[in-house]
Amino acid sequence: MARKVAIVGIGQTEHKTRHPECSHAELINEAARRALEDAQLTIKDIDAVLNGNMDLFEGHNLLDTITVDGSGAYLKPGRKMNTGGTTGGTMVTSAWYHVASGIYDVVLTIASEKQEESGGNTTSAIITCADPLAYRPFSTGAVGALAMVAARYMHDTGCGEEPGAIARVKAADNALKNPYAHLKLHLTLEDVLESRMLIYPLRLLHMCPQSSGACALVLASEEKAKKITKKPVWFKDHVISHQECFKRPLSPDPTPSMISQTDAARKLYQRNGVTQPRRDIDVFEMYEPAAWAEIAWMEDFLLCERGEAWKLVERGVTALDGEFPINPSGGVVSTNSIGATAMVRVAEAALQIRGDAGAHQVTRKEPKTAVATAFGGCNWTIMTLLSKNLD
Amino acid sequence: MTKQEAQEYMIVPCGINGEMNIPYSWGAGDFVGKALEELRDNGKIYANKCPQCGRFHLPPRKVCGRCHVEMEGRENWIEVGPKGTVLMFTVTVTPFLEPETGKPRQVPYTVATIQLDGAPAAFEHYLKETDPEKLKVGMRVEAVLKPKEQRRGDVRDIIQFRTIEK
Amino acid sequence: MNQETKPNTPVSIPGAIIMPYRYYAGATGSKFFVELRDNKRIMGIRCPQCNRVYVPPRSTCVHCFAKLDEWIELDGRGTLESYTIVHYPLPVHPLSPPFAYGIIKLDGADTGLTHFLGEFEPEELEIGMRVKPVFKEKREGSILDIKYFKPLYKNS
C-alpha cells in the first residue's frame, strides 16, 4: 500500500540561453540549494538524490559522472535517469516511488539541461532518437513532428492561423510575469503571424526556445511533510502511458493523435472522479513544445470535444484570468530546458496550489487541484495530479 | 568570488575539440534485413499484418506492438506501394545539422507520412515537391527508386516520392 | 515465391553521430584555467568545513556540500599515486603509443589529478615517485596547458 507523499520544497534556476558563469554541476547545485532552502532542510536531511537530464544534449554520456558534487549525491542512494523530454516527469514520479514505497522518507530530485553546450544543436540530437534503419534520414526531430501535428489540426478544423498566434501571445503575457521564464517577449498577434517560417507550417515564434536551466523538488512522506512545512502539496495520483515512437514507420497509427495522452487522461480522470475536467481541475500545466501543440493536445487530453479547442483559445478561456488557465507559467513555448521542463510543470503547478506563484498566480478561483503533463520524443506521457488537500 | 571577478575570469573553454564523432553500425535483424534486401534486390516494399489484431507494420516486424503476438513466417507479409497517398507533410526550410555528418542538411526538403497502397500502414519519406502551395493532404505520390546497381539495402534506396495525377 | 524472412547475408546500416559541442568551465573553472594560461600557476580550492583542498577546483564540497571560494596556490610538485602506459593505437586516443598517464596527488591537495607523464624511461616510473609539471610555451586556458608531469629529479 503506497504511502502519501507531498512536495515540501521547490527550487528553480532562471532559465536562459546561456549560463556561462557555471558548469553543469554548478547549475544543478543552484536548483538543489534553492529547493533545500525552500524546505528549510540541509543535504544531511536527504535520504536519496535523483538526477536527470537528456545526456546527448550536452554530449556527455551519463551526466552524474561529473555532477555528484552539484547534486549532493555523494555516498547517498539515488539514481541518474534520462528519458528524453519526459525526464523531468520521470524524476518526479521516481522520487514519488522512492518515498511512497516506505524505503526513503525525504528525497531530493533534480532535473536540468544546459543546452548551450550543444551549440544550439538539439534537433540534431533528437534526430538520433529516430530509428537509424527507417526514419533517421527524414527526421527533423521534434520540430518536424510538431509541424505535422499543426498541419493536420489546421487541415481538420479549418481554423486558420490565428488560434496559434493567440495561444502564443497568451503564453508570452504569462511569461512576463514569471521571474524564471526564459523568453519574456512583448508579442502581438502580428508578430507571431509574420515571424519567419521555420518548418512549415510552424513559424519561429510558435516553437519553444532552447533554454539552459535546472529545477529541483524535495519530496517527503506524510509524516515528515507535516513537520517540514505548513503548505505541503500532495501527490494525488499519476499515470504513465507509452505509445510507440513518434517515428511513424513503427507506429500503428498514421494520424498524429497522441493516444498515450488520451489514454493517460482517461485513466487519471476515471480514477479520481473527474467527470468535467475544466470544472474539476483548477490549473493545467501542459508540456507543449509548440503553440499549436497546446491547442491540438487540449483535445487529446479530453479537455474539450474534437474540433473545439481552437474556439476556447480564441475566447480566452485558457488565459491566466480565464475559466480554465493553461500554463500560467508561460509554458514550454516560453521556457524549455528540456531535461528540466517536465519537472518545471510540476513545480509550477505546486506553486499555484501553494499560492506562491507571485505575479502569475491564478486568482480567479483558488487552485486546489492541478495537473502537470510530460511529453517526450519517444511519445510517452506522464500526467500528475496534485492537490492542496490530503483526502 | 564576486560576480565581477567571475566576469573577469570568464573564458570559453576549453582546449579539447568540442566535437563528438562516433561511428556506428546498426544491425537490421531478420525481418527488417529481409525487407531491405527485397528493396535492394527486387525494388519491392513490404509490410506485415498481425494475425490477431489485424494491425499492419511497415517495415515488417516479428512481434505485434499492440498485442504481443509473434508473427513468424512470410504468409503475413504483403507487398505495398509503390504508389500511395499523403497523410501529412511538412517542409523544412531551416538547415538543421545532420547528425550523421555534422553538416547542415540541404533545404528546403519535404518529409511526409505516406499511406502506401495495399495496406493501411504509414511510411515516412521525402517528397520531391517542396512548394507548400503544391502540397496537400490526400495527394497521390509514387516511389522513385535508385537504379538497382546503386541500391545498398537501406531506406534511402528509395530516393523520394514524386507527385502523380490521380 | 520467396518464403524467407531472413536476409541471405545479415544487413547492417553504417552511420555515425557527429555533433559539435562547447563546454563552459563556469566562474570557478575559468579562474583555474586562466591561472594556468597566464601565470603557469596551479590553483586549488579549500573547504571551510572539512579543510579538503580540491584540484581541479570546484564550487561545492562533495563531502560537506559547503560552498567553496577559498583559493590557494599549489607549487605544482606532487606524488605519483598510480600510472599506466598505453601500448596500442586507437583513433580516439589522445596521443600515439606508447604514452603514459597517471594520477598525481599534488602537494597541498586532497584529490588526484590525472595527467600525462613525460621525460622518463619506462623502468624509471614507479608509484610514489615525485613529479613536477612542465608547462607548454603556448597556452590556451586548458588542462593541456600543462604538457605533462616529469620526474622531479630531472633538471629543468
Can you walk through the features of this model?
The complex is a heterotrimer of chains A (391), B (166) and C (156). Chain A has 13 helices and 11 strands. With 391 residues, chain A is α/β, with parallel strands linked by helices. Chain A has a domain at 5-120 and 210-228: Peroxisomal Thiolase, Chain A, domain 1 (3-Layer(aba) Sandwich). In chain A, the strands form 2 sheets. Chain A has a 9-stranded mixed β-sheet. A two-stranded antiparallel sheet of chain A has the order 5-6. In chain A, a hairpin with a 4-residue loop joins strand 10 and strand 11 (380-387). The model of chain A is unreliable at 248-252 (pLDDT under 50). Chain B has 166 residues and is mainly beta. In chain B, 13% of the residues lie in helices and 36% in strands. Mean pLDDT of chain B is 85; it is low at 11-17. The longest helix of chain B has 14 residues, at 29-42. Chain B has one domain. Chain C starts with 11 loop residues before the first strand and ends in a 5-residue tail after the last strand. Chains in contact: A-B, A-C, B-C. The interface between A and C is medium-sized, with 31 and 21 residues.
Set down the secondary structure blueprint:
The complex is a heterotrimer of chains A (391), B (166) and C (156).
Chain A (H helix, E strand, L loop, with lengths): L4 E8 L11 H16 L8 E5 L15 H4 L8 E2 L5 H14 L5 E9 L7 H6 L13 H17 L4 H14 L13 H5 L3 E3 L2 E2 L8 E10 H7 L4 E10 L16 H13 L5 H4 L2 E3 L5 H10 L8 H7 L22 H17 L14 E7 L4 E8 L4
Parallel strand pairs in A: 2-3, 2-4, 9-10
Antiparallel strand pairs in A: 1-7, 1-8, 4-7, 5-6, 8-11, 10-11
Helix pairs in contact in A: 3-13, 6-11, 6-12
Chain B lengths: L2 H7 L9 E9 L1 H14 L2 E5 L6 E2 L19 E4 L2 E10 L4 E2 L4 E2 L4 E8 L5 E6 L12 E6 L12 E6 L3
Antiparallel strand pairs in B: 2-3, 2-4, 5-8, 5-10, 6-7, 8-9, 10-11
Chain C lengths: L11 E9 L5 H14 L2 E5 L6 E2 L15 E5 L3 E9 L12 E8 L6 E5 L12 E6 L10 E6 L5
